[in-house]
Design brief:
Layout: H1 3-10, H2 20-28, H3 36-58, E1 106-108, H4 127-144, H5 154-160, H6 177-186, E2 190-191, H7 215-220, H8 226-229, E3 232-233, E4 235-240, H9 255-262, E5 267-271, E6 283-284, H10 286-289, E7 299-307, E8 312-316, E9 328-332, E10 345-349, H11 355-373
Helix pairs in contact: 4-5, 4-6, 4-11
């Protein structure tokens, strides 16, 4: 390509070759392109991102900014993956509180053993499996004590949840948390992440790893070598923190019930994450996130608490710790922001604890609660 035609292409959507912000972006995010044609396309996407970021910040707080995905096509950005079966009807009961309402000003289970480190679903649409796995991890730790705080396997759920029936899901092509719980109910259990690690690509789309790959390991949880398999969780069911909203605008969800549930446990939630790829930090308002309607939900994550003074829900994502607030996002508290209360679930785990173990587990739970609310007290 001669120098004249090269300059024409680089200036097709504004002049990339003389745009200092573009040069800075490429330097900040270590961007290298294989051709002038590709750089021209990427520059156009970058310019569109700048316009979208400015419009989004004008709706509320300055929560949007340039990220590694600002020059990416939609299918190249962080994967999501919520996909429910057509006509799905929620039948699970509402969560019943186990303790007297204490109404703390803030609570954040993230600071406790009830929440494991941030995970990364990569370019697989397995958010639903990660959300369910995180919720099961939390219930395991809160029900059994901090000794049961282990990382479980989202790969097992991604690969092994059936693709047919009422709760059918489709691996990296999408699924939903209720389907994940129903699968684990039918399995010997959900194994730990050392036994079955995550095998989907973190940088490119990949075919869902076949469940048969892990059959021996899954069967081993119920066999004579179960102890050698390490920790795992058995799920007996799940409840809704608030009545689920499966159609319409979902503008009147019971946020107080969600707060009440979060006083006792982290909660799996599904959201409209259409604007989340541009999020860099701060409190995203409901206006900035957009629709809270059931039909707009496309991603499942986990609420780990709230801060009434700051006015936000605390939500854990599965897009690695480099995204947002070290892997988390803060959403406006007084609204059903992003529809986070549309589909809020809490799994139930089964543990065969002795009376002595139950007492230790309760002490552990109370210590975690004190830590989550920042009480600074020593519960023994």
């Amino acid at each position: 390509m001669d120098s004249v035609s090269s300059k024409v292409k680089s200036c097709a959507g504004g002049c990339a070759s003389t745009d200092e912000s573009w040069e800075q972006y490429k330097s900040d995010f270590k961007k290298v392109y294989v051709s002038d044609d590709e750089e021209t396309e990427r520059y156009g996407l970058f310019k569109a991102s700048l316009e979208r970021i400015a419009k989004g910040n004008a709706l509320g707080n300055n929560v949007y900014g340039l990220t590694w995905s600002s020059d990416r096509r939609p299918e190249e950005k962080h994967a999501k993956g919520l996909k429910k079966r057509p006509g799905f009807v929620p039948t699970a009961p509402l969560y019943e509180k186990k303790y007297e309402r204490r109404s703390p000003e803030s609570i954040n289970w993230r600071t406790t053993d009830a929440v494991t480190p941030i995970k990364n679903q990569g370019q697989c649409g397995s958010c639903w499996a990660f959300s369910a796995t995180s919720a099961i991890e939390s219930q395991l730790a809160l029900s059994g004590g901090d000794g049961f705080s282990i990382e479980l396997s989202p790969q097992q759920i991604t690969s092994c949840t059936p693709s047919t029936g009422t709760y059918g899901s489709d691996g990296c092509n999408g699924g939903f948390t209720e389907g994940a719980y129903e699968y684990v109910k039918s399995a010997p259990g959900l194994t730990n992440s050392f036994n079955i690690g995550y095998e989907q690509s973190l940088t490119a789309s990949s075919t869902t790893v076949a469940c048969n790959t892990f059959k021996t390991k899954i069967d081993g949880m119920a066999g004579a070598d179960a102890e050698l398999s390490g920790g795992y969780a058995q799920v007996t069911g799940y409840t809704y923190a608030t009545p689920a909203c499966t159609s319409g605008a979902c503008a009147n969800q019971d946020l107080d019930k969600l707060k009440a549930a979060l006083e006792e446990t982290p909660v799996s939630v599904c959201v409209n994450a259409a604007s989340w790829n541009d999020y860099t930090g701060g409190v995203m308002t409901s206006a900035q996130c957009g629709s809270m309607a059931a039909d707009e939900q496309d991603h499942c994550v986990m609420a780990t608490g709230f801060n009434a003074t700051g006015g936000y829900w605390i939500v854990r994502n599965s897009w690695a710790s480099g995204w947002g607030e070290m892997g988390y996002i803060y959403l406006e508290l007084d609204e059903n922001t992003c529809g986070l209360a549309d589909d809020a679930t809490i799994p139930t785990v089964s543990l065969n604890l002795s009376p002595e173990q139950q007492l230790r587990a309760e002490h552990s739970r109370q210590r975690m609660y004190a830590q989550a609310v920042g009480a600074g007290i020593n519960v023994v």
